[in-house]
């Protein structure tokens, strides 16, 4: 398939099928885009939406978040999961104030230098906030490209290769490249999904290499991730106690939410090591001040 045809058909589909999300409305600041990208990592849009709206109402600029204690970012993160993202976002806000006068930088290099900002997030903010022509390769985009152009069921594991990035860049038009990127991302999220793709609704199905090959299954067994009973669940329970309390809590308040003593101790030690919890001299615990 010609890249120009792919871009045209996907953007035409997006114009009709796209979800209305506040960080896409054209009026969102670069800071709002950065916050959305941090929250959307490994987290569904439905869970992110109310937290993003509350967050942006409270901290509409990086400077306003940077002026708060990092524990407030963790508290406001709520139950989005992977709360270290909240700490990294707070550190990014501080860096934006200190290095860029409170304005989110536009260059890939400056974005990549912010704490916790990787290749994907830097590319996404550069593209969606500043219109930079750069490939934005999340799991959805990589899967669409692998199926349509390579006839593969999904992209390879691990980070995108140099060849994959170059091919993705070649598929972006010189004009409106960010629109194509977000359209492909939306196609992967809504239609060309991992487990139950709706090929009958796909705008590029007639020219999809994977569909033409009979939709071959991925090689290797798919690993399912469990949550119940894991250290991650224990960490979430302990952190919820601290997040819901305006004051430091004693050890008993943490002990009662997780029965397994060794696992609870391991989870608490991990939260302290990650900077998400601060132990106090009197034996109580709090979110980082």
Q: Mind telling me which CATH architecture of the domain at 17-130 this is?
A: Orthogonal Bundle
**Assembly state here?**
single chain
Order of helices and strands: HHHHHHHHHHHHHHHEE
Overall SS class: mainly alpha
CATH superfamily of the domain at 17-130: Hypothetical protein, domain 2
**Spatial strand sequence of the major β-sheet:** 1-2
| CA-CA gap between termini | 54 Å
Largest sheet: 2 strands, antiparallel
Strand fraction: under 5%
What is the C-level CATH assignment of the domain at 17-130? Mainly Alpha
Mean pLDDT: 95
Total helical segments: 15
Q: Would you mind describing this structure in some detail?
A:
By secondary structure, the protein is mainly alpha-helical. Among the domains are: 17-130, Endonuclease III, domain 1 (Orthogonal Bundle); 231-286, Arc Repressor Mutant, subunit A. Helix content is 55%, strand content 1%. It has 15 helices and 2 strands. It has helices at residues 3-17, 30-40, 45-58, 62-66, 70-77, 84-100, 108-112, 119-130, 139-150, 162-170, 177-190, 209-212, 231-244, 251-255, 261-273, and strands spanning 278-279, 285-286. It has a two-stranded antiparallel ribbon with strand order 1-2. A hairpin with a 5-residue loop joins β1 (278-279) and β2. α1 (3-17) crosses α11 (177-190) and α2 runs antiparallel to α8 (119-130). The model has no long low-confidence stretch (mean pLDDT 95).
